[in-house]
Amino acid sequence: MNNYLVFDWGGTFLKYAVIDKKANIIEKDKVPTPQPTDNNEADRKDFFKVIDDIVAGYKERVDGIAISMPGMIDINRGYTMTAGWLKYLTGMYLVDYMSTRYGLRVAVQNDGKCAALAEYWKGSLSDVKNGAVMVLGTAVGGGIIINGQLYSGTHYSAGEYSFMILDAMNRYEFGATWGSYGAKGLIKEVCTLTGDDPEVLDGIKLFERAEKGEKEVLKGLKNYTDILAVGLYNLNILLDLDKIAVGGGISKQPLLMEYIKKSIEDFDKNNPLRSFDDYIPQPNVVVTKFNNDANLIGALFNYNSIYKEFGRFRKK
């Protein structure tokens, strides 16, 4: 068949799709994610009741199951060291559990790393050797490609940008972390200047006002991208990348990318180190190609990298 059931488990929705070996999405859908309570055992049972219903509808039509999910994942053991918001899935030998439950091969990988794999396979990073993806979601996730290979790190935490500290003076505050500068971080930054309620203002309304030239909204946007530029600069200096692809829902806004590039240029021009060395590589930032489908496509790439069911992948 060479068709696969691919999941993207997020904190709000469980997305799923049937995808063929060429990364063509044949069909896809989503259901609400069962939310965690204080009873992990009961939550886990509720979660897999939902997954059972989905798998039952596709089991005879697919060759395997690929999963993208939050957390630090040991893909060699199929073990969830952490599971992000889906805390009831922490500490599971997930691959063994699901393979036994459904009678299919299963592979699992962190969602940010899946996004990087998708972009490297057929997306914005397909022409590079060294690159990274930064996903602006609830927090800030991503993945890193080094010498044409996904870099996971010793503890599978490579690419967990949310844990990085961008403000040393306030290092014990959540606001000092890169994770606080996801999409909600932009809204908070703007609301600080406009007086809007951050629980009411959403990204669509924010960018509508920005496009109209509202001064305080644009100032808040620039403050936000200035902070992102510091993180992108640090990432690029550390790894010397060909490209960094920015994804997440708000990345589809052309104005955001315009401001990110302007913030990078401003920082590059005013970098105090230029008085010592004029050669400081500037991050080459692009938009991801697959956006909301990246985790699905990257999960399939990860599946085949483990089982090699349909040969070596060809890049686009």
Question: Nearest-angstrom radius of gyration?
Answer: 20 Å
- Give the integer mean of the pLDDT values: 94
> What strand line-up does the widest sheet have?
3-2-1-4-7
Name the CATH homologous superfamily of the largest domain. Answer: ATPase, nucleotide binding domain
Main structural class: alpha/beta
State the shape: globular
Number of continuous helical runs:
8
Biggest sheet character:
5 strands, mixed
Distance between the termini: 22 Å
Q: How many domains comprise the coordinates?
A: 2
Structure characterization notes:
With 316 residues, the protein is α/β, with parallel strands linked by helices. The protein has 2 domains: 3-115 and 292-307, Nucleotidyltransferase, domain 5; 126-288, 2-Layer Sandwich (Nucleotidyltransferase, domain 5), CATH 3.30.420.40. It is built from 8 helices and 12 strands. The protein has helices spanning 40-56, 94-102, 111-122, 183-194, 203-211, 215-239, 254-270, 294-307; strands spanning 3-9, 13-20, 25-32, 64-69, 73-74, 79-80, 105-110, 131-136, 140-146, 149-151, 243-247, 285-287. Strands 3-2-1-4-7 form a 5-stranded mixed β-sheet, with helices on both faces. Strands 10-9-8-11-12 form a 5-stranded mixed β-sheet, sandwiched between helices. A hairpin with a 4-residue loop joins strand 5 (73-74) and strand 6. Helix 3 crosses helix 8 (294-307), helix 5 (203-211) crosses helix 6 (215-239) and helix 6 (215-239) crosses helix 7 (254-270). The longest helix is centred in the C-terminal third of the chain and has 25 residues, at 215-239. The protein is globular.
